[in-house]
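Cast an eye over my tokenised protein here and flag anything odd:

===
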Amino acid sequence: MEQEGPKDSETRVPNDHDHDHDHSATNYVSIEIPDTAHQISQDSWLQVGFVLTTGINSAYVLGYSGAVMVPLGWIGGVVGLIAATAISLYANALIAKLHEYGGKRHIRYRDLAGFIYGKKAYSLTWALQYVNLFMINVGYIILAGQALKAIYVLYTVDHAMKLPYFIAITGFVCGLFAISIPNLSALRFSLGLSTLFSLIYIVVAIVLSVQDGIKAPPRDYSIPGTDTSKIFTTVGAMASLVFAFNTGMLPEIQATVKQPAVKNMMKGLYFQFSVGVLPLYAVAFTGYWAYGSSASSYLLNSVGGPVWVKTVANLSAFLQTVIALHIFASPMYEYLDTKYGIKGSALAARNLSFRIGVRGGYIALTTLLSAILPFIGDFMSLTGAISTFPLTFILANHMYLIAKKNKLSSVSKLWHWVNVILFSCLSVAAAVSAVRLIVVDSKAYHLFADL
């Protein structure tokens, strides 16, 4: 089908995406590569793996004890996290294997959906992805604001400054970072810092939680709430599980990896879902063990310990969140930079002024919404329901089913249809649960609330 947009280029690249071929031999094919203002095919699989793990080990991990383990309990939480890991790896692998489908390199999720389904699917997928990434970034700004506020509370008595002020500070810093980093591949040095920052707040959270848990009396691990509320919180926790492991922008990340794109992306995914998930598990399980059903939605608010240690941990969470937000905002930046021809030197006057105006405006809008509705758990659940479920599971299985329909057995086709139907039902249920949660919180908190 014909896509509107910049004219594609064509190159000959080694291709190993077709798993019906022998991988011992390099298969050269002509692959069309869409025009983009950002760099593609520049990064090693390890750098891409760190981009993926930066997303799942962002400061969001400090909330999974409260958002996942508390509503699910020990059995449901442990089984749910492990199952979500396996299912997410499978679904992401399906998308990765379609990266060069039909002789065209699909460097954007919407391009892949449009190529398979048509123009309407292109627009719908772009809308879903935009909502997904925008709401993730709203959550990031809220998280970073909470981290700054946690530092402020450690050193003050009057607590005159409220959360919205720290959200505004966060937005300003994120805007400066967005202007200074032109594209996703330029994050190389920042990814190293991101890993260091992640290790700091994860290690601190685990160590201080263990210290508190050893000293604490027996904890209550019962699932709180009435029978009705437990149903909704369980469904919401399932949406948070999906949110934890998936980016909703895998083709955009895969676009940066060197050829062979599919084989290297699979290496990055294996890294993400093996080494990369261990810190998340450790924080979620340790926090729940230490505090039980009273575990906070931001674990560093629950821990005891030296003030300076908690300061370093919160500052690390803030800085890592600034970097992670840039990853999830990059598809929007790539779209606008490509549309308006922002190429060449990042310091050129036109390019710099464009980033200041456009990216600054995007961050300002995100920051404003974050300050108005700072209900972080709601964003995790709603994002998982209305966009992460469809993008990662429903579309992934159905697109693979369409693309490989002549090569799949009847059993395999049935398996993918079961996944499509199951995750469609879960998506609807999770959306209802998330909306209910937002309504409840809206009654409990006013706009620009100080949480």
In short: The two ends are 49 Å apart (CA to CA). The longest strand covers residues 9-15. The beta strands are 9-15, 27-33. DSSP finds 14 helices and two strands in the chain.
